[in-house]
Specification:
By secondary structure, the protein is mostly helical. It contains four helices and no strands. The radius of gyration is 19 Å and the shape is elongated. It starts with 5 loop residues before the first helix and ends with a helix. Keywords: Membrane, Transmembrane, Transmembrane helix.
Length: 165
């Protein structure tokens, strides 16, 4: 009869929620970074005058979804930690990783995306497309470093959740 207790059902529901959210977020990031953006580059869309606006629209939506995923993961981890159900949550490692993921989502949403869009937007429609501003390369490097940290942290967190299932 203990197999149907509320604690076991809560644990598995929150654990599944965290794992599903991490998998969804990880797959969305990989699709955006390795399919959508390279295909836009390969087709020459990055040289078009309206590319910054289109890219900002894509990233605006994705960054908000990222914020929701990060908040849901952090909530699930804190619930699991508070209920003392999952053994892997005894350490502060998973809380740190989920806070790191939330921080990365906030930086992407409120700093990197608006700044990259502002640098890339063409304000004079009569001028030819200018070359990439120097500051854009630094922002791209920062974005890719944050993406690598995000992928490693979310993969580690997903592995920890799956290990304790």
């Amino acid at each position: 009869m203990t197999a149907f207790s509320g604690a076991n059902l809560k644990r598995s529901a929150w654990q599944r929620t965290v794992m599903f959210t991490l998998a969804f977020w990880l797959s969305g990031s990989l699709i955006l970074d390795w399919v959508i953006m390279p295909s836009m580059f390969a087709t020459g869309m990055m040289t078009e005058p309206g590319f910054a606006t289109a890219a900002y629209s894509i990233f605006w939506i994705f960054n908000r979804i990222e914020l929701l995923c990060a908040a849901l993961v952090l909530t699930g981890i804190l619930v699991l930690n508070h209920t003392h159900i999952a053994s892997y949550l005894a350490g502060r490692k998973v809380i740190f990783l989920s806070l790191l993921l939330l921080t990365i989502a906030i930086i992407d949403t409120y700093f990197l995306t608006p700044h990259m869009s502002a640098l890339g937007i063409q304000l004079n429609l009569f001028d030819a497309v200018a070359e990439t501003p120097a500051g854009m390369n630094q922002l791209h490097a920062g974005y890719w470093v944050l993406e690598a940290v995000k992928l490693i942290a979310s993969g580690t967190l997903l592995g920890l959740c799956d290990r304790d299932r």
